User: What shape does this take?
Amino acid sequence: MYVSVAIDLALDRLFTYEVPVELLGRVCVGQLLRVPFHGRITRGFALALTETPPAFATKPVMAIEDESPFFSPALLKLVKWIASYTASPIEVVLKTAVPASVLKPSARPKELLFVEPTGSAAELTKHQAELLADIVRVGGGWMQQLVKEFKTSPSTLRTLAQKGCLSIVPRQSRRDPLAGRSVVPTHPLQLNDMQARALDTIFAQDVGGRGATALPSDGCGAPRPVLLHGVTGSGKTEIYLQVIARLLEQGKGAIVLVPEIALTPQTVRRFAGRFGNRVAVLHSALSDGERYDEWHRIRTGEARVVVGPRSAIFAPVANLGLIVVDEEHDPSYKQDETPRYHARDVAVMRARFEGARIVLGSATPSLESWLNAQQKKYELASVPVRVAGRSLPTVHLVNMQQELERMGHVPIYSSLLLEAVRSRLDRGEQTILFLNRRGYARVLDCPDCGWVAECPECAVPYTYHRADQCLRCHVCGGWARLPADCPVCHAKELSYGGVGTQRAEAALQACFPRAKILRMDADSTSRKYSHDDILSAFRAGKADVLLGTQMIAKGLDFPNVTLVGVLNADTSLNRPDPRASERTYQLLAQVSGRAGRAEKPGEVYIQTFQPDAAAIAAAAKGDYAAFAAGELEDRRTAYFPPYCRLSTLVFRSKVETLARDWADLYARSLEGWAKKANAKSGNEGFRVSEAAEAPLSKADGWFRYHVVLRTPTAKAAVDAVKWLKSVRPPPDALRIAFDVDALNLM
Ligand code: ADP
Ligand code: ZN
Ligand code: ZN
Assistant: This one.
C-alpha cells in the first residue's frame, strides 16, 4: 500500500510513501502523517491511497501523528476544487483549511486540577467550613482559580479532599473565547409572515427533490442556494437562528459566515444566546489555544454551530445541514493572498458536495448573486420591510456643490447635518457619523509649490495623524516626522487637505463642546477588546455620537440611534474599479441601515458632490432592484462581471523595468492566446488589457504593473496563465500574482 502526501513546502506536488506493515489498515485519507523528507522529519497530510507501486524507490511512513482525520473526503474534494479554480498549490490550500495552530503540539490543552464539592464532614475547623461553603456556593472550579479567589492554598484544599468533602481530579481545561462575557439565553421570536415565508423557501429546497440542482458530475441532488434579500433590520438573523434550530433537532450542524468586521461580540452573543455551548466561534483574534480548542470541539461534534469569518468555511463540521453566508456581498470574503478564494463561492461548492442547504443573505446582494437569482440558478426569498412595522429611515441628499458656493469652501459638516445632530443632542438621541478615512488629514501639501508629502516606498500621499504628530502611510504602515517647512521651497505654512476621522472628530467637538463623541477606526481599536468597549459604551448611552470608518457600517443594532450622517459619499465612487458604483450603493445602504432600528424613526444625511450618480440616487430611494437592473445593463454592455470572469495578473519587482517589461511580455503572449481562443469560439469572449501601471503603482518599495483578463469562464484564464507560466517562468526578482475573479483592482 502506498500513500501520496502533501508536504507543507508549497512545491505544488505530492510525494509518495510506502505504508509499512505495522501501519497497514490504519492509515487513511485526511490524516496527518510523520514522514522522512531529504534527511529531515516532517509532517504531511495523506491525500490518496493506492496499491500500485510507483516507478521509483519510496521511503516508509514513520508514524501517524493523529489517528482521526483532519478533513473528510468531502472537504478534501473542496480543497482540490479550490486549488484548481484559483490555480494555487494544494498544500497552500490545505494550510488555509487547517490552521497551523490546530496542528501545533504546544497548543494542545493542558490538564489542570479541577475541584468539586462532594460532601461535608463533622470535624472541620471554622476556617475549613467557611472555605467549603464558598466552594459549594460557586459549584467548584479550577484549583488555581479557587486558591486565588478564596485566598487559600492547595494543601488546604487537599486536606478537605482527604476528609471526603472535595474531589480533586485532573481535567482538560477549555480555553473559551467567550469566558467571562455575559451571554443571556434567548428564545425564538414569533416570525412575521415574510420571515415565515422565507423560512419555508429555505426548507422547500429539498435534497434530491423539488428545487434541487442536478449535478451532472456526481449524479446526486443538492438543495438549490437561496438568496435571502432582506432590507436592514428585516430580521434575517432571526430566520437563520430558526433554520439552524430545526436542523440541530435533526442532528445536523451549521456554519454561519459573517464578515470579520461584523464578528462583534454582539453577533456572537445572538448565536450563543440561542444555542449555548453548541456554538464555536472562530476569528482572527483567538489565541492559539482558543483556536485549538474551538476547532477540536467542532471536530468531535461537541460544537455543532460554527460562527466565523471567511476561513470558517473549512470548519470540520460533520453532517453539515446548512451554510449561511451573511452579508454575502462583503468584499472581505475574498482572500487577498494565495489561495485567493472567495468564501461565498467556496460555500456554494461545499454545500453542493455535502448536500447541505445554503442561504446567502444581504440587504444589498452582489450583482453576481443577484443575476444568479434572476436566472433561477438561485431561489430568491425577499423580506422587503423591517420587523414590527418599523420604517426604513428617510434619506436626504446634501449637495456639497451648493454648500461650496454658499460658504466659499467645502465644510466638513453641512449646515443641514449640523442641525440634525443638534436636534438629536437636544432630544438625547444618538448619532452615527461615517467617514471612510482614518487619520486627521489625507494630505499635507505646500500651497506655494504644490509639493505633497508622500511615502517614499509607496505611491500614495501620507496621512497626517494629529495625536502622535506624525505622517503615516496607510499602505505599508511606515511613518515620518512632520516637516517644519516645505522641503522644496521652504514655505512655512503647509496646508492640510482632505479630512480624516480625527479631524472630523475635532471639528464636531468644536461645534458642540459638550457632546460626548466616540471615535472608532483602526487607530482607536488596536487593543484586543477596544472594539467591544467602544460599542458597549455607545450602547450604554455613554456617548452621543459614534464617528468612524466602515467598521461602524455593518451589523450594528443600536435602538437609540435615529440619525446617520455620511460625510463624503464620493470617496468610494471615484475609485478605478468596475464595481465602484456597486460598492458605493452597498456602503450607503448599510450605513443608512443603522438608523431608526427601534421604535423611533430614523433619518440619514448623505453629503455628496454627485447627487445624480446612479448609486447615490438609488441609495437615497432605497431601491436596490432598480439600481441592480441599471447596473447590470451597464455591465453587460461593457462586458464586465457578472457577464464575464475578470482576473488580474500583478507583476511586482523592486526593479521597475523588470515589472514593466514582464507585464508587457505576458500581455502580448496572452493576446496571441486570446486571438486563437476567440477564433475557435467565434466570439470576442477572451479579452486582454494592455500592460499598465497598477493604480497603486508602488507599494512597500515594490513597483506594480498589471494585466487584466476578461474571459467567458475562470478556467479559460487559468489555462492560459498556467501555460504561460510554464513556458515563461518569471525570474527570482519578479513576483507574479494571479487573481482569478479579482475584486481588488488596485
Ligand atoms: P437583519 O439581520 O435583517 O438586519 P435582525 O435579525 O438584526 O435584522 O433584526 C432586527 C431586530 O428585530 C433585532 O433586534 C431582532 O431581535 C428583531 N426581530 C427579528 N425578528 C423579529 C420578529 N419576528 N418579531 C420581533 N422582533 C424581531
Ligand atoms: Zn513648497
Ligand atoms: Zn508606504
Observations:
- Residues 446, 448-449, 451, 486, 488-489, 491 surround zinc ion (ligand 2) (CB under 6 Å).
- The domain at 390-438+501-636 is CATH 3.40.50.300 (Rossmann fold).
- The chain has six domains: 2-103, 111-172, 193-387, 390-438+501-636, 439-499, 645-739.
- The longest strand covers residues 40-50.
